[in-house]
Automatic annotation (TrEMBL):
Regions crossing the membrane: 41-60, 67-86, 92-118, 169-187, 217-237, 258-282, 302-319
Coiled-coil boundaries: none
Descriptive protein name: Autoinducer 2 import system permease protein LsrC
Subcellular location(s) of the protein: Cell membrane
Keyword Nucleus included in the entry's annotation: no
Protein's membrane topology: Multi-pass membrane protein
Organism of origin: Rubellimicrobium roseum
Known role: Part of the ABC transporter complex LsrABCD involved in autoinducer 2 (AI-2) import. Probably responsible for the translocation of the substrate across the membrane.
Amino acid sequence: MTRVSPGALRLLALVLVLLLVGAFFASQIENYLNARLFNRISSSVAIVALIACAQTLVILTRNIDLSLGAVVGFTAYGTGALVTAVPDLHPALLALAALGIGAGFGLVNGLLVAYAGVPSIIVTLATMAIFRSALVEFSDAQSITTDSLPDWLVAFPNLQLFAIGGVQFRAAFVAAVVIVIFVHLALTRLRPARALYAVGSNPEAAEMAGIDVRRTVLAAFVAAGALAGLAGLFFLARFGNITVVAGLGFELKSIAAAVLGGVNIFGGAGTVVGALIGAILVDLIENSLVRWDLVSEFWREAVLGLLILSAVTGDALLMRRLQRLRIRRDKAAAPVPKEATP
C-alpha cells in the first residue's frame, strides 16, 4: 500500500475546504453556483496567484515580503506610463520591463536582508512605504487611464482561449496557472531552486552542505519581485485605470493565500500549487462575502486576518504533533541495551 505524502494530504484537505466553502455559500446565496462565478473569480485569481507564488518563494527561506503590493502598484503604473509613451511597444518587451522593474525592487529587499542582515519584516515594511512614496512622486498626481492603453492589453485578461460549457478559460488565468506550474517544476526538479527548501529548513545545515545561503535568499527576493512585477502588468491590463493606491492590500492577500495553501510560515515547507489553491480560496471567500447580505463587505479584511491566524496556528500545532510522533517512533525503534551478564 502506497503512503500519501503530507504535502499531498495538505493539498487534498485544501481542495476539500474549497468545496465546503463553495457548498456553504451556495446554500446562502441564490443562483450561486454557475459559470459566471468561475469566470468572475478566475479574472482576479490571475493576479493573486502570481503574488502568492512570489510570497511563497520568500517564505520558504524563513522570510516574508510585505512590499509586494507596492511593487505591484509601481509596476502597474510604470508599465502603463511606458506603453502610453510607446504605444507600438512589443508585448514581450513590455512583459520584460515589468519583470525588470519588479526584480529591481526585489534586489533592494534581498540585498538588505541577505547581506546587511536586517530582518525581512523590518526591511520590507520600510520598503513598502518607500516604494509607495516613490510611486506618488513618479506619478506626479496623474493617473493611467484605459483610453491611453493599447487595445491588445485591455483585451488580454478577458481573451477567451477555450471554454467548457459556459466556463471560460481566459488568457490571464491560463497564463498565471502556466507560470505557477513552471515555478513548481523548477522547485521540484532544479537543484538551485531546491536550495530554498534547504535554507528554510535549516540554514546552518544548508551552509555546511555547500549552499550559499545569502545568495539563495537574495535570489528568492529577486524572483518574488519579478513575479510581483508581472502581477503588476496583469493588474494594469485588468483595471486600466491606475492610481497611486494600486496594489494596496495585496500584501495581506499574498500571505493569506500562501499559508492557506500549506506553506509553512516558519519556512522550509510548502508548494506554489498549494498557494494557487489558497489564492482561489481567498478570492472565492472575498467574492462571496460581497454577495452575502448577512455580512458587510467591510469584514473582508477581518476574515482574511482570521484565516491567516487559523492557518498559522493550525500549522504550528500540526508540526508539534508530528514532532512528538517522530520522537516516539524513534524511541520505539531504538534498540534496547542488553543487560551485562555477571
